[in-house]
Amino acid sequence: MFLMIVFLSCGTVSLFLLYHALISMVRPKNFPPGPVGLPFVGSLHYIAPTFNKNIQQMANVYGKIFSVKLKSMNFVCLCDYDLIKEYMVDNPKPFAMRPKLFLYELMRGPGLDGIVVSPYGAKLAAHRKLFHAFLRKHGCGDKLFCKVEQELPYFVANIQDQLKLTSTFDPTSAFEYAALNVIACYVFGNRYNYGDDKFKMLLNHNKQFFQKVENVYSPAVTLVSLIPHLHNLWLPKAAKDLKECCRAIEDFISCEVEYHKSTLDAKNPRDIIDMYLNEMSHSRSEHFTDKGLKMTIMDFFQAGTETTSVTLKWAVIYMVNNPEIQERVQQEIDKVLGLHKLPTYEDRLKMPYTEATILEVQRKANIAPIGVLHSTSESVKLGGFDLPKDTCIIPLYHSIHYSQKHWKNPNQFDPENFLDLNGKVGTRPAFMPFGGGLRICLGMNIAKQELFLFFAAMLQHFKLLPPTGILKLDEQYVNGGTLHPKEYNILLEDRCKS
Ligand code: HEM
């Protein structure tokens, strides 16, 4: 009897292990090709953590559409404009879900509320609609409410203050302060002084978050994400740190929400929090909840600060390394604005070369190499293959932004890429820095304003030069939440003084 029990137990465990070993290796029918996965683990490790380089290498072996596995999860990598367009633009609906990833639950807690990681459906649509309604009311169309233009004088003064102390300059903090304050304005109703204790706390939380995100591709975190429930018993330090960091941000937001509740004037909403609170009480919709509000605010900080500041950091590098382009931008700025009138977003219509330059920065820097992952809500065809429900899609934006088919010299920095024969800014289909389809970046219009205005104001006031003894700044990227440049210093000359 005892032997029988031992035998049956061993058999059950073996079958269980065999099932889990095979599930990481077996592909669905007519599924894109890819490397054979390791038992239990699959093959995701072939492309993570340096997605950009590794996906490109794998595409050379398996073709422009291939698959990798993480246990039972199927991931499909796309390395071609036509394929990315097929799912983002031509047939976006079945591809508009977000995958359920351990990392998302770690950061958000159960429920995946908010916007960025929220599943596609009525709740997400209601959130996106609310935000669009807010922007229509308080966007840049209305001068009084243009939060980005309001921030410009502080941004310029911040750089000038640093320049009084030293002529060698790391622009990071100026961009981070400005980007954070713009989002703070939209969600909390007012900007902070850069020296304000609350602002410093928010800045610190935000910085911590982006530092912690860089550590989550460690083998220990991958292990925990492979074995559901293990994280209830044990969390690797990188995961624990990230979780704690998100909770600290949530606590900060909770205080702001409570303050807003106690001072709400429903007829005069001041900001996104007030609009959300109104929606919670008016529509009594189950879509708008306390947790949803906090996670939505967290989304705006996490999706809308580092993306902008990192793009501006790249802009500085490309201007230092291409002085003739910097000079041409400055000539246009001088002609349209002069040295003292700060730019408005309307001014871009008279400044095509400046606008084309910032678009080229976005193309070349390609800061979100795989965007935010989408997944399928039903079985669907893509590139002639059959993708079952819950297949996770990884688009390689490098294959669009650096495509020989779509750009004359993709490796060269050239604002002409975005100018038509009449010198006007033209649209380019193979340009998707904000993703696309039904999940296209919700903050795209704010981001465009920020990039143009901060860039133009910076070049209006300062000439950007390499530090003494260096000809060019390093253009190699570092992998993290975004592809960001290595730390650098530059020399600045105040154009208003020279
Ligand atoms: C240069 C700046 C920015 C870049 C390059 C960028 C890029 C992106 C990308 C690639 C996505 C994923 C789109 C997809 O799934 O196909 C995204 C989503 C998102 N972004 Fe941005 N973003 C920027 C700035 C902002 C700003 C300023 C905000 C907020 C004010 C913001 C809020 C969001 C939100 C909420 C989503 C999720 C949309 C959804 O899931 O439905 N982003 N962004």
TrEMBL record:
Residue stretches spanning the membrane: none
Keywords: Heme, Iron, Metal-binding, Monooxygenase, Oxidoreductase
Molecular-function GO terms, alphabetical: heme binding; iron ion binding; oxidoreductase activity, acting on paired donors, with incorporation or reduction of molecular oxygen, reduced flavin or flavoprotein as one donor, and incorporation of one atom of oxygen; steroid hydroxylase activity
Name used for this protein in its record: Cytochrome P450 2C42-like
Cofactor(s) the protein requires to work: heme
Native source organism of the sequence: Phallusia mammillata
GO CC, one annotated term: cytoplasm
Pfam families documented for this protein: p450 (PF00067)
Family: Belongs to the cytochrome P450 family.
Biological process (GO), any one: xenobiotic metabolic process
Gene name of the record: Cyp2b19-002
Binding site for heme: C441
